[in-house]
Amino acid sequence: MRILGIDPGSLVTGFGIIDSDGRSSRHVHSGCIRVSGQDLVVRLGMIFEQVSELVDTHGPDVLSIEQVFVSRNPASALKLGQARGAAICAGVRGGLPVVEYSPASIKQAVVGTGSANKEQVQHMITMILGLDAAPASDAADALAVAVCHAHTQGTFGRLPEGVQALAFRTRGARRRSRR
């Protein structure tokens, strides 16, 4: 499976593409889409176009993306959500299923703790993918999103079919009960 991971940002959007069989993963391509200095609408269009180009060029099977988190600045969270939407639309335009992971889930899958810092994520991505050097922070975060999906799907895919259905129903029930 080829996975396109996205770490959305209104100024810098990280991307990471890996190939994975659920047990091991291989780095294909990663980097950053830098759109600073432009009007927000122009930046969103650039994110859409460049993610669309990644989809067309590399042919991923799925787009995995980090969920929005709300910090102290609601305006920043809104811009982040819009950048995320531009990337999601590019994936949908390319016919990809889109899956979302919380920041804590991504860190847990890659580092082993949901409170890991950026340096720990970079280090573990370098080790997991056997890279010669640590990627830029945003690219490492995007690769972490892709690795999180690979690990999640790899584990889920090894479960018997009946257990998969039960896990899906249980996960959905937990989400509904939190509302």
TrEMBL record:
SUPFAM superfamilies: Ribonuclease H-like (SSF53098). The keyword Cytoplasm applies. PROSITE patterns: RUVC (PS01321). Mg(2+) 1 binds at residues 7, 138. Its cofactor is Mg(2+). Keywords: Cytoplasm, DNA damage, DNA recombination, DNA repair, DNA-binding, Endonuclease, Hydrolase, Magnesium, Metal-binding, Nuclease. It holds the Pfam family RuvC. One of its GO terms (biological process) is DNA recombination. Binds 2 Mg(2+) ion per subunit. InterPro entries: RNaseH-like_sf (IPR012337), RNaseH_sf (IPR036397), X-over_junc_endoDNase_Mg_BS (IPR020563), X-over_junc_endoDNase_RuvC (IPR002176). The keyword Cytoplasm applies. The active site is at residues 7, 66, 138. It is found in: Cytoplasm. It catalyses: Endonucleolytic cleavage at a junction such as a reciprocal single-stranded crossover between two homologous DNA duplexes (Holliday junction). Its main location: cytoplasm. The RuvA-RuvB-RuvC complex processes Holliday junction (HJ) DNA during genetic recombination and DNA repair. Endonuclease that resolves HJ intermediates. Cleaves cruciform DNA by making single-stranded nicks across the HJ at symmetrical positions within the homologous arms, yielding a 5'-phosphate and a 3'-hydroxyl group; requires a central core of homology in the junction. The consensus cleavage sequence is 5'-(A/T)TT(C/G)-3'. Cleavage occurs on the 3'-side of the TT dinucleotide at the point of strand exchange. Homodimer which binds Holliday junction (HJ) DNA. The HJ becomes 2-fold symmetrical on binding to RuvC with unstacked arms; it has a different conformation from HJ DNA in complex with RuvA. In the full resolvosome a probable DNA-RuvA(4)-RuvB(12)-RuvC(2) complex forms which resolves the HJ. This is Crossover junction endodeoxyribonuclease RuvC. It comes from Thioalkalivibrio denitrificans. The gene is ruvC.
